[in-house]
């Protein structure tokens, strides 16, 4: 039984190293993916700013057309001033002319505000595009670094996978199946040491009788709390 336990301990040691390698690969790729996603967000922001400019230009053109119509109306009223004969008609025309000029001025003020906003948006787009260009260059460099790193790490993983396969071949099939199931259910930790009667997987006390049996090392026991496979190896000072 001690031989089986030692085989499992060695296998788990390899598996934990493989887990660490896989986590490192995921972390490297995840960090790169986040930067690539940030590029997409930046491009979306620039597109949104450009859309705002487009809408602003449309609104400005519509207002310019309104101003032209209003000023044409004012000129028409002014020409009619030469034809009126009564004070009442003149007063009415003067009111229409004043209202037309006022409305045209309000539209012109809106046009100026839109042009100022578009100018700010243009400046913002230039800034964002410059930032995007710089970030794209950095991401291109980072992509190559990550590719090289993952390639190197993957070679190490391949070696560990081969070592794992070799180690697993010497383990009883039913024990290996149990070990695999426990690793899946117990966050990668299937075989645990017991120190001073305490399981190092769940940190719960082992019944004294079971602990004494475990110390003999002639049987395989599971932790009654977390069901992990237990072994005893004294702490190293």
UniProtKB/TrEMBL annotation:
Residues 11-66, 97-124 form a coiled coil. Keywords: Coiled coil. The keyword Cell cycle does not apply. Transmembrane segments: none annotated. Residues 198-230 form the C4-type zinc ribbon domain. The keyword Ligase does not apply. Residues 11-186 form the CT398-like coiled coil hairpin domain. Pfam families: CT398_CC (PF24481), Zn_ribbon_9 (PF02591). Signal peptide: none annotated. It comes from the Bacteria. This is C4-type zinc ribbon domain-containing protein.
């Amino acid at each position: 039984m001690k031989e089986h336990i030692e085989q499992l301990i060695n296998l788990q040691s390899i598996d934990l190293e493989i887990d660490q390698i896989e986590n490192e690969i995921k972390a490297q790729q995840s960090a790169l993916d986040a930067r690539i996603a940030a590029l997409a967000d930046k491009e979306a922001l620039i597109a949104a700013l450009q859309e705002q400019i487009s809408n602003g230009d449309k609104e400005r053109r519509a207002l310019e057309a309104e101003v032209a119509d209003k000023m044409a109306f004012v000129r028409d009223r002014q020409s009619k001033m030469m034809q009126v004969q009564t004070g009442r008609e003149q007063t009415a025309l003067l009111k229409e002319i004043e209202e037309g000029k006022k409305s045209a001025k309000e539209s012109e003020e809106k046009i100026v505000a839109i042009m100022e906003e578009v100018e700010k948006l243009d400046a913002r787009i230039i800034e964002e595009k410059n930032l995007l260009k710089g970030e794209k260059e950095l991401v291109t460099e980072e992509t190559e670094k990550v590719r090289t790193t993952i390639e190197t790490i993957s070679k190490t993983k391949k070696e560990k996978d081969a070592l794992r396969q070799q180690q697993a071949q010497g383990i009883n099939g039913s024990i290996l199946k149990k070990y695999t199931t426990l690793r899946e259910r117990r966050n990668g930790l299937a075989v645990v040491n017991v120190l001073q009667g305490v399981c190092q997987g769940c940190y719960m006390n082992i019944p004294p009788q079971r602990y004494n049996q475990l110390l003999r090392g002639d049987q395989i026991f599971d932790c009654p709390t977390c069901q992990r496979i237990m072994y005893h190896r004294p702490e190293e000072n």
